[in-house]
Sequence to fold (366 residues):
Amino acid sequence: MAKFAKKKDGDLPAVSTASLPDIVFMLLFFFMTVTTMKDSSIMVENTLPNASETKKLEKKDRIIYIFAGKPTKEYQSVYGTETRIQLNDKFANVNEVGSYILAERAKKPQELQNVLTTALKVDKEANMGLISDIKQELRKVNALKVNYTTFEGDAFNNIQ
Amino acid sequence: MPRRKGAPEVNAGSMADIAFLLLIFFLVTTTIETDAGLDRMLPPIEPPTEDPPVIKQKNIFTVNINKNGQLLVEEKIMNIKDLRAAATEFLDNGGAPQGPEYCSYCKGKRDPNSSDNPNKAIISLKNDRETKYATYITVQNELVGAYNDLRNREAQRLFNRDFVDMEAEYLNPETPSAVREELKDKVKKIQDLFPQKLSEAETSTN
Fold:
């Protein structure tokens, strides 16, 4: 008499894991493409103001960044709460801006040295006095093209 | 009598295809985030011997921001929301009578006491050292907005598209160079109609 092995109810077959590597690779590639390398950690508060008439900053290799704002919590005990300038990954005084720009400019290839833009990433709580000092320094080293980096949004959100 | 089978095994052979499909979808749709902001040119440091050029008072539109973020525009207190309209009116005035300085494309009031021609019109911005950066950016944004509105208007009239679009396409590195060459002249032409003359005085200390 033929014997039928009756499968027990609820005995599900194992899910094939053959495609797991594919999924993992997919995630890997996804994150590889969307992440941008952060070359310096920001040590100042950096909530940018909003603006609507913005232009995109194309070509990352032509940009020199200057950050300004209050030092973040972990640095406040050492550097206080006054607005500070951050160049690369250290705090700096206004009079160091010029030499920083010159040093950064010298690092770029010759053909780009005349088309560099200075991106000012300044916290919206900062005072204009510091910005004016930075601008004055930039004028001294002839780095005249600046970009006030902002978030896209309604500019009237800035004043409340 | 119905025979109970276990659940059939799902064919996982196409899983890889689905994964690749998703991967390619994300690859195509994600753009690496780029920063955006307001582009400005700083004035070069002038040699001290040079005499500053004489500019008629009526061609200057003064904007003063105090430390509380209040605006003084042409000696009158103004709400920041009205700044764009006021700047547009000043730039578009075209007050010069018939002659070399006559502005044929201006649609303003042609008030003889306001700017002669957009080429002559200068906006002068002055701020206090204690002005908030956010306020300053708002004012800058409104002034750039006034220029962009007028440029858009002229670009619509001449080329049937917005100036802001044209400029963005021109500056985009992915635009083919043939298209870019063509846009270059158009962008230049519009920029010449309403040149951005935004002067910033050194900040006052009190």
Remarks:
- Chain B has a mean pLDDT of 80.
- Chain B touches chain A through 61 residues (CB under 8 Å).
